[in-house]
Amino acid sequence: DGGITQSPKYLFRKEGQNVTLSCEQNLNHDAMYWYRQDPGQGLRLIYYSQIVNDFQKGDIAEGYSVSREKKESFPLTVTSAQKNPTAFYLCASTDRSSYNQPQHFGDGTRLSIL
Amino acid sequence: AQSVSQHNHHVILSEAASLELGCNYSYGGTVNLFWYVQYPGQHLQLLLKYFSGDPLVKGIKGFEAEFIKSKFSFNLRKPSVQWSDTAEYFCAVSWFSGGYNKLIFGAGTRLAVHP
Known about the structure:
The structure holds 2 protein chains of 2 kinds. Chain A contains no helices and 11 strands. Chain A is mainly β. In chain A, strands 2, 4, 5, 6, 9, 10 and 11 form a 7-stranded mixed sheet that branches. In chain A, strands 1-3-8-7 form a 4-stranded antiparallel sheet, with no helix packed on it. Chain B is globular, with a radius of gyration of 14 Å.
């Protein structure tokens, strides 16, 4: 079955450490997205990518970085510059061939600080 | 900046009660509208969507939503809720600009249905 796979499910970060969250999709979608979910704040867009080797900052990109070297992969790195990284991170993808498409979501990664 | 507002953060209902969750957005152009649901311990799922046509859209599990363009609203309704509807509900709005499809979410409404 096609879908989005995020790993790991739980991740712990030490102070000053960079960590990378994985997102892989086999839906052949062009567009991929990273969101951060905090209680009472809904989902906020971190980065998004419409095609390979291209990505754009979302509303809260500071302290994060991404790459899009392959169509099926869109890893997110939470850098030490992100001072409040504890959150639930969701990856999504959609078919760019028509903008009238809903996004498909992964199961998420919960990041905590040690 | 564009935004999506959900008026109720927490809603508590008894089974068989009617449900209406409010959603308003601020964007003057053409939009697509969505309601997503997240059941406890599960990932986000699409409940229903509006792209064009009939402003009253029906989704899964007896949910429906009405798009009122003049009010920039897309409220979610269900005539009779069940205990299994306990979940968090997110309204989302997308638009196409500069070759990019942007999607923003409301803060969510946590619904608890008591037997």
